[in-house]
Amino acid sequence: MSAAKPRRTPTGVAVALVIGILAAGCGSAKHDHQKKARTGQQAAVQAGATRQALADEAAGVVRWYWRARNLAYGALERGPLTGYEDQAAALLSRGDIDSRRANGIPAGTSTSNLGDLHTYLTRPDRFPRLLLAAVTTAAGDLEPEVYLLLFTKPAPKAPWKLSWPARYADNTPLPAVSVDADGFAVPLTPTRQRSTLRADASEIRRRLQDYRRKAAAATTPPKSGYFANTKGTYGAAKALQADVRTAELIGVRQRLHPRDPHLPGYALATRDGALVMVTIGEQTVREYQASPLQQDQYQIGYDRRVAPGSYRTVVFRAVATYAVQVPAASGHRRAVVVASNSSVTTVTAKP
Questions:
Q1: What is the pLDDT along the chain (351 residues), one digit of tens a residue?
Q2: CA 331 to chain CA mean position, Å
Q3: Which domain holds residue 235?
Q4: Residues 245, 196 share a domain
Q5: What is the number of structural domains in the chain?
Q6: 198-202-205-209 Cα dihedral, nearest 10 degrees
């Protein structure tokens, strides 16, 4: 349900219930019509108030989360995010904050202010509830950035938590999320995804991991026959392959292995298919074949999560989130990655 432009609640409408006993035979057609009109007005007032309350709830969830995020990044401490995140969001922020703190990135360099806010809520009586927010953020003189944030609420008394975030690709239109007759976003179950889309969330995850694995092993960046060649796919494949080739020049063998993060995928219906949100896991192994990696006592030359010492193997584990516009089963267009995010969650070095 979009909360970008809250609907104004009608005013000047009587909402008191009319209580009375009508004598048999005294009701007229005019009276019945007036009674139906009052009932309709009452229903309209109640529906408007409900929609406004839900819109306010959605905006409040996003703003309270962003406040906690700024506190966490302002101090490079994960504590302020406790209770605000789970699933992929918790893994991403933990890896990012740990990396920033270990590598001496100044606190506060990733705080920002919220600008435009668009929210879409699924129906309030069906769980888990989903809240998708498209937010524009600004920090100092930097260009504004757009993020997709997916919050989940698994049960009526459970709190909203950010479960899945991604940064929107530059110059990409926001998703055309479909809403039902009451203005609520429509989530697609795995069964419905398989019956209405070209691929469900699990297949999208597998295809993304497959594509990146092939890119890391190929001699030239491969183009996907399934995904459109965008920054999130072909552009990422070129960057990944550049890393592999650069490593080879200094006698380092780099291999990429897909990992299952065991995290759910989500899908919201759009006008021409669905916005599918998935998380992938990867493990990158760097083998120093020519000579060992020498991490000095000041840890200047390498990721400072690696302790000083001499190492032959360094293993990076990472998670990445992707938002993919998947066409309907009857469509012929390719799937398009519209948003992504990634973070190295652990670094392990072996002698």
A1: 444 433 333 433 333 333 333 334 445 555 565 555 555 565 555 656 678 889 899 999 999 999 999 999 999 999 999 999 999 999 999 999 999 999 999 998 889 999 999 999 999 999 999 999 999 999 888 889 999 999 999 999 999 999 999 999 887 888 899 999 999 999 999 999 999 999 999 999 999 999 999 999 988 888 898 999 999 999 999 999 999 999 999 999 999 999 999 999 999 999 999 999 999 999 999 999 999 999 988 777 789 999 999 999 999 999 999 999 999 999 889 999 999 999 999 999 999
A2: 25
A3: 188-351
A4: yes
A5: 2
A6: -110
| Bridge partners (DSSP) listed for residue 253 | 287
The model carries a pTM of 0.86
Rounded (5°) CA angle 147-148-150: 140
In whole angstroms, how far apart are CA 245 and each of 123, 220, 287?
49, 10, 13
Residues 31 and 80 in one domain: yes
Q: Which tokens is 10 given?
A: 């009608």
d(CA 189, CA 263): 15
* 82 and 122 both lie in a single domain: yes
Residues 195 and 175 in one domain: no
Residues 157 and 63 in one domain: yes
Domain boundary among 150, 184, 218: 184
Q: Which two tokens stand for residue 4?
A: 């970008």
